[in-house]
Amino acid sequence: MASGEIIDHDGARGKGFALRRWLDLGILACAVVAALGVTPARAEYPEKIVKIVVPFAAGGGTDIIARTTAQEIQADLGKSVIIENKPGAGTIIGTQTVATSEPDGYSLLMATFAHAVNPSLYNKLPFDPHKDFAAVSLIARSFNIVVVNPASKINSISDLITEAKANPGKLNFGTFGTGTSAHLAGELFNAMAKVKMTAVPYKGAAPAISDLLGGQIDVMFTTVASAASLVAAGQLRALAVTSAERSAAFPQLPTVAEAGVPGYAAESWYGLYAPARTPAPVIARLNQAIAKAVQSGAFKKLEANEGLIMVGSSPEELDRYVGQEEERWRKLVKDANIEVQ
Fold first, then answer.
1. What is the pTM assigned to this prediction?
2. How far is CA 12 from the centre of its chain?
3. What is the extent of the structural domain holding 189?
4. Nearest alpha carbon to residue 293 among 110, 53, 103
5. What pLDDT digit, counting tens, does each position of 86-119 carry?
6. 8 A C-beta contact, residue 269 and residue 144
7. Which PANTHER family match (predicted)?
8. Is the bond into 46 cis (omega within 30 degrees of 0)?
């Protein structure tokens, strides 16, 4: 028998060569696949509908910004982007929804002022605003606008201060919930003007404004996006803007500081977050889409008509900005003894 030959149980020769050849070829094929790093093809993000959760009721300023964002980025992403409104608990309900979502880029959060303030308001949150989220982009910054019902006898910030001092605790200002920009802008006014107005929380800007129009509340420090069209139509009377300087969108309106409360300034913001551990390429793709979106005609219109300051930042810039906001408002929350009811 020749060396190396295989003889089967029937004593047949040659079959062993064929078997060895097939085994050798199989081993070689596996080695090639491993060397080339061949893996199943992975489709590029996104493969399905993307959802942006808005932690407020539909129709308010945050909702407007979110819907404009969705409209603009879906063309770039090539997939539909929808809005899901989940108001309640000072934005906690909607925020928690995203915190516990799959980190795949298909559930996003349109965060606002409250995202930076809630850690100061609550001893314990059902999520960690730092560890449970991945920053995508600071979309825009904005000031708030002080508005009253046109039938009100309050025609200026000076009138508001006079009325509030004459009736401590009797004037009501509507908010979008405890710790939102409309709330803390009003509390900052209380502290700096040395007056006492009572905050009335709602689940969003739209229901609060509805009660302002109906005369159930006296004043709001609302977002510009939620009130601009009503001011233009004469359905609300604007008294001042909360920014440090006058706005090009409302050049006729004084700042609260100019109108009687020196040093006063408050702003709101809109930032997009994904759940923590969302893959870096997905974050980068979303950030790229946002950067393009804020240059669009739709956002330019919001910028011109409603006083938004478009940003489209990097994720790192959003993290830094929110950290500064968190520090800024912590003192007011403590000094004003603001508590969640």
1. 0.75
2. 76
3. 143-241
4. 110
5. 998 889 999 999 999 999 999 999 999 889 999 9
6. no
7. BLR1237 PROTEIN, TRICARBOXYLATE-BINDING PROTEIN
8. yes
